[in-house]
Amino acid sequence: MSQFPYLAVIVDFDRTLLHTDKTISPYTVEMLQNLQKSGVKLLAATARPERAITSYCETIHFDAVTTLNGARTVMRDSVLENPICIESAECILEQLCKIEGTVVSAETASGIYANTDIPQWMLTVVDDIQKIPYREKIYKILASHPQMPVEQISLKFPKDTYMTIAEHKLIQIMNTSATKWNGVQRMLETYHIPTERVIYFGDDNDDMEPMRHCGCGVAVSNALDCVKEIADFVAESNDEDGVARFLLKAFLG
Q1: Which domains are assigned to the chain?
Q2: Which of 29, 191, 221, 224 could join 237 in a cystine, given CB atoms 3.0 to 4.6 angstroms apart?
Q3: Does 1 score more than 50 pLDDT?
Q4: Over 70: is that where the pLDDT of 164 sits?
Q5: Is the pLDDT of residue 208 over 80?
């Protein structure tokens, strides 16, 4: 086994580390655990909230995770938060609620709220979602539409917020400080790891910035074309355990 050249491995979850059925294979778990035992830090950067990654973190004991696209970064002994301010959240929610049929939800400190039920999300349905900012700290606002392409949903954003689109179907709105790259930087600073000694795996738009800045950026083959274009390497797909197989073939074989 050759010497592993990186001090940290950072992985996105959905469509990167996880199979399409949201599982992690025993093969991948063993590979990552062996790396961690050798002294490599395992870090994660995900759009998911903490409650949605609990089982994965119990299986793989990540040294730190940045969640909600960087709105919350959780280290072993500290948490960094970048919520949307009350006025900006209210402004965005008010605009979304005026577009008939739009499914709107808000990730908060106590859970997720929405204007309609989304069974797989285990959320709380409320009639007055635009008032949530005055009751809860909001980390992320999500929106989709059953008939309208999300690119056609027109919004005027406050200067302290920005938007990304996940999987061509879900608008995600966060504080401008809440980015995966900012979260990644905080995690690396905690462990005093220089970016050139980091390998990052991802598949979507919000993975592009950390992929560009880290020493090695790897896209899985099922990633968006724009992500594969800027990656240093393209691994096999998420359903083929691309992360683990790339690590084995490239560095550990």
Answers
A1: 8-81+179-252 (3.40.50.1000), 86-175 (3.30.1240.10)
A2: 221
A3: no
A4: yes
A5: yes
Question: What value, to the nearest 5°, has the Cα angle with vertex 181 and ends 205 and 241?
Answer: 60
3-state secondary structure of 101: coil
Largest CA distance in the chain: 59
CA–CA gap between residue 202 and residue 163 (Å, rounded): 18
What residues are paired with 105 via a beta bridge?
114, 142
Q: Are 227 and 208 in contact (CB under 8 A)?
A: yes
Beta bridge partners, 163, equal 173
Cβ 171 vs Cβ 150: under 8 Å? yes
The first and second tokens of residue 65, run together, are: 């995770």
Burial (CB < 10 A; 0-12, 13-18, 19+), residue 117, is exposed
Cα separation, 170 vs 144, in Å, equals: 5
Cα distance between residue 115 and residue 102, in whole Å: 9
Average pLDDT, the chain: 94
Question: How does pLDDT run across 110-157, given as a tens digit for each residue?
Answer: 999 999 998 888 899 999 999 999 999 999 999 999 998 888 888 999
pLDDT at 165 over 70: yes
Beta strand pairing call for 103-108 and 233-235: unpaired
* pLDDT tens by residue, 51-62: 999 999 999 999
> Collapsing DSSP states into helix, strand and coil, what is residue 228?
helix
